[in-house]
Design goal:
The chain is α/β, with parallel strands linked by helices and 242 residues long. It folds into three domains: 153 residues, Ribosomal protein L4/L1 (Ribosomal Protein L4, Chain: A), CATH 3.40.1370.10; 51 residues, no CATH class; 29 residues, no CATH class. Strands 2-1-3-6-4-5 form a six-stranded mixed β-sheet.
């Protein structure tokens, strides 16, 4: 898959090949939904918090004696059935919303979202993105020169570039992140993804981890070394040229 490459003036300077393992993956909507819901749950911070009868101030003394008054028995004025008492089954800050998702599922969902963006031409690739000064005006000019215009955009930087981060802080619907921190929720929150050419290699290095040996060969090697001692294993490696 090839994608157009632009410079900061908005001129097309060529085309860049995108790796199929990342940008041409078959989409599974259920998997993407599961990963996005888990991310939203993990970012959720419970705010609402009610006090139970043990946490409400006062109510340590029995309001009246148990028998002989004709009234209903009561042990505390902070009972949940009293006005000003504790709350029963109210929202609490102690509730945990976190969900665990396997790393392979998260990685696969990320590739699916990137593939969708690439097929819909929502990835804008730059040959480089550098600013001499952290000026918002410079970033706005770059975005207006590109197909992004005034649409929402996520800028994925290969490294932490303070000038670009500070310059894009005041622009509505524009945010910056590092390429190594890309995730499905952030990508789906913005229409366009703006990435410099260097970021493609960082995506490969971060999210693609190739196995040096096939699965069968790794199993044989582990089985062989489990039977022999460490010294014999070293001799085998030396003779085989490792």
């Amino acid at each position: 898959m090839f994608i157009k490459t632009y410079n900061q003036e908005g001129k097309e300077v060529g085309k860049t090949s995108l790796p199929k393992e990342i940008f041409d993956v078959k989409i599974n909507p259920d998997l993407v939904h599961q990963v996005v819901v888990s991310q939203m749950a993990n970012r959720r911070i419970p705010i609402a918090h009610t006090k139970i009868r043990a946490e409400v101030r006062g109510g340590g003394r029995k309001p009246w004696r148990q028998k002989g008054t004709g009234r209903a028995r009561a042990g505390s004025i902070r009972s949940p059935i009293w006005r000003g008492g504790g709350i029963t089954f109210g929202p609490r800050k102690t509730r945990v919303f976190k969900q665990k998702i396997p790393k392979k599922m998260r990685r696969k969902a990320l590739f699916m979202v990137l593939s969708t963006k690439a097929k819909e031409n929502l990835i804008v690739l730059l040959d480089s993105l550098k600013l001499d000064k952290p000026k918002t005006k410079l970033i706005v000019e770059i975005l207006n020169n590109l197909p992004i215009k005034k649409a929402s955009c996520l800028i994925a930087l290969p490294t932490k570039e303070e000038a670009v981060i500070r310059a894009s802080k005041n622009i509505p619907k524009v945010e910056t992140t590092q390429t190594k921190d890309l995730n499905p929720l952030d990508l789906l929150s913005f229409k366009y993804l703006l990435i410099p050419k260097e970021s493609i290699n960082i995506i490969k290095e971060t999210f693609l981890k190739p196995n040096l040996l096939p699965k069968m060969e790794r199993g044989r090697e582990n089985h062989r070394f489990s039977r022999v001692g460490k010294q014999q294993a070293k001799r085998v490696l030396e003779t085989e040229g490792f």
